[in-house]
Amino acid sequence: MSRDKNHAEIIARLINSLYENRSLEHIKGVLEQNAELEDENKKLKITNDQFDRKIAQYVTKYDAMKSKFDAKDSELDGLFKEKNDLVDRNSVLENQYQTATLELIDVREELRRLRRFAVKLNTLSDATESLLNGLFFKARNVAEQFFGVDFTEETLADLTSWETLRKHDAFDRNMIPIPLTNSVVGKQMRTAAFLAIIAVELSRYIFQPVYIVEDADELCEALSDLAKDATEQEAYVRSVLLAAFRGKQAQDALQRRLDRTADTIFSFVGGLFGSSAAKGALRMSLGDLCREASIEWQRIQSLKEKIEPSFRFFHSDDDEWKPLVFKTPGLVSPASPKAQLQNSPTPKAPNKRSAKQGQQQAAKPDEETAPDLADAVIWPSFWVASLLQYDDETALARGYVLCESQIATAKEEEKTQVVPGTRRAARRDVRRARTMSTGVVGQMGMRPSSSSGGEVGSLTGTGSAAAPPGGGGGGMGSGGSGATVAGVANANGGSFLSGKGGGGPKGG
C-alpha cells in the first residue's frame, strides 16, 4: 500500500511538472523513467518473494535444527549425568576392587594355609583293583603257611583252642565246618577259618578311612553316610583327618593299631601252636601282614573315592563274589561233595588216618562260573562307598566265599572223623588195663599164656621185663623173665585167667 501511494505521488508530481514545463521531452523522459521504475519494482517484488520463501525455508530449517539441537542438548545433559553416574560408580567399583583384591590375597593365603591341613587326594585308577586283590593274596599266603599244613594229633585234639577259634565274630555270620583232620578238606576249612578271622580284623582296624583315633566306629559310620550324600564333602573331611594323622605320634598310634590287630588275631589261634618258636613265627607273620596291609590301605585312604569292604552276600551277584581257591598244591576246592567223598578213604586204623586223608584230591571249581557259592564270606568285596547303596553297581574288587560243595564235604568229614583225643584216651585206657591185669594175675599166683605157645614161668616173686611176643617167657621168679601180656587175651586165644596155651621153656 505504501509503495502504491508513493507511486501515485510521483505520478502526480510528474503531471504537475509536465503541466508546468509543458515540455514533451520532459514528459517522455518521465514516462521512460516511470516504466523503468515499474520494471525495477516488479523485479524487486520477485526478489522479495524469493527472499520471503528462502526466509521461510530457513526458518523451517532453523526450527528443525533447533529441535534437533534441543534433543541433542537433552541427550548431552543425559550423557553428562550418565558420565557423572559412571564416574561415581567407577569410584565405588574401584574401592570394591581394591577391597576385593585385599580379600583375595587373604583368601589365597587362607587357602594355602588350609591346604597344608589336608592331603591331596588321588583319582581312582585300574591299579586300585590290583592293589585290593593283592591284599587278599598276601592274607591267603599267611593263612596257608600256618593252617594249610599237617597239624600234630595233640593240636587236632586241643578242643579248647579250636573252640577259642570258633568264638571269633567271623563265625557269627559264617557256619564254617572245621574237620579236625589233616585231610585236604580239613586243611581247607581251617585255612578258610583263619583267613576269615584275618579278614574281619583287618576290616575292623586296618581297612578304615582314617587312623586318627583308635576306636572310630562312629566317625567311620559318619564318613560312610556322608559319602553317600555328599561325596566331595566327605573327601575333603577325610583329607583333613588324614593330614592330621602325621608325625611320630601318628606313627606310634599306627603301630599300636597294628599290634592290636595282630594280637587280636593271634589271641584266637595262638593256642593251636605249641612251641614258642611256632607262636613267635605266627605272631611275626601276622605283624608283617598287618603292616603291609596298612601301607597298601593308606594308598586307598588317599583316593578321592571312599572305598569300603563289604561282607554282605547276595547269592545271585556273580559280579561281587568268587569261590575261594587255594594256592598251595593239594589245597584245592571240591567241585562236588560226591567227588570229594569218593576220593576220601575211611581209614580203619587211627594211626594211619592222617596219612591216608592227606592223599585226598578234589576237582577245582572255575573261579568265574562256580554255581554253588555259599553264604560263607571269607574275604570281603570292596566298593566305592557312594555306589554301595545301588544294587546294580559292580564291586571294585570281588570278595571270596566258600562253595556249598566245600561246606557239604567238610560236614560229611566231620560226621565220620575220629577225634584224635578219643584215640589217645583209648590207647591210654588199654595201657592202664594191661597194667591192672598184670597186677591182678600176679597177686593170684597164676600164669598167663605166652603169645606163641611157650610155657610161662611162675608169676610169683620179682623178675625182669616181659619177653617179646612169640618167644618163651621167662618166669618172674628169682632170676627169671616175665611173660608177654598182650591185652585181655593172647594171640592163641588163651585167657590170662585160664592159664591155657602152648608150652614154652620155663625160666630158671
UniProtKB/TrEMBL annotation:
Keywords: Coiled coil
Biased composition (Low complexity): 483-498
Location of region: Disordered: 333-371, 442-508
Compositionally biased residues, Gly residues: 469-482, 499-508
Coiled coil, from the record: 27-110
Domain of life: Eukaryota
Name of the protein this chain belongs to: MEI5 protein
Protein species of origin: Lasiosphaeris hirsuta
Organismal lineage: Eukaryota, Fungi, Dikarya, Ascomycota, Pezizomycotina
